[in-house]
What we know:
Blueprint: H1 4-11, H2 17-27, H3 30-41, H4 45-50, H5 53-62, H6 68-93, E1 121-122, E2 127-129, E3 132-135, E4 138-142, H7 153-161, E5 168-170, E6 172-179, H8 199-203, E7 209-213, E8 224-232, E9 235-243, E10 254-262, E11 267-277, H9 280-286, E12 299-306, E13 310-311, H10 315-322, H11 327-332
Antiparallel strand pairs: 1-5, 2-3, 3-4, 4-6, 5-12, 7-8, 8-9, 9-10, 10-11, 11-12, 11-13
Amino acid sequence: MIDTHVFDEFAVRYSPPVFDIEEVLETASMATRNSLTLMLSRVPQSRILELDDEAHGNARALFRASDREMRARLLVVGQHIAAAIQAARLAAVCSAQPPAMQLPYQHHALETVSVDGEGLVALSNFAAQGDGLQIGSHVFFMFSPLQVNNASFWTLAALGRLGLNDAVRIRLDPLLHGPAEQICGRFYSMVVYGRHLDWGRITALKEAEHGRWQPGALSTRSEFTDYVWEPRGHEVHFVCEEVPLAKEVRQRGSRYFHAVFDKRDGNLTHVDGAIRLYTPAQLEVRVREHVRTTKKSGRRVKVFRVDRPIPKEGLSELCPAFFVWNYDVARYFGMDLPRFM
């Protein structure tokens, strides 16, 4: 269990706890500092001994502390806090309450914002500043499909470039928000370049086309990513899923993307991104299957949805953006990447 003072301090911070933990120890309230100091003192020696050279190297880069053991304690506690916040975040989006009653939708800044049955709100309600979404004097963030708060930046940027901000509904992060003078969005850049898919081949499909990739060294850690193009009458459905590692199943869901291509007019008539949350038992079944056969496996939580048809070329922007740091997806959509990625 994590003390309420510590949880509340870190839950509304954009940066991961390991980035801010030393600052919190110096500047937070006395109650928070005392609770955090107690957590550091209670890290078992066995946990410190479990850390390998790479973990100690990361700790040396992250922290100002000169003592190796103190750096190890800061790393362990920071990771523990991050896991607790993510567990609370996932519990909030899976709440049995009606979507409009879930976090953060009862916040006074959202009193004029309509929440639909999937827990999504219109992006047009907000003024985007990087990945920060301001309404009045309060800033919210799009729910991240990964355990890092900036993972949604590229999806929002792609939606903006495609002129879709007035036709998109998104899920807000239940925990990360605050007054504009205290929290703000960030801007990022990534040097990758996209090309279009061979839509002629997709249009001519008579049977399902599918594949699977194992993650490279620099991709987001996962069991694998698989995809399928499935023709259904005048439509072709595209589904892609990045399946989480078994050891991380309680901290993150899969990233799941779905699009419907209409062969008659060449547009995408539906696009959405979601996470699928699995129990350990469900994940054991999922890894033995392919996304084309999993159907309703796990619990799907919608992250965003586009509410009007868009040109098919938009898929080459939106899908890699949603799967940011998955270089197999980026390469599949024609992005030029260094070979080691």
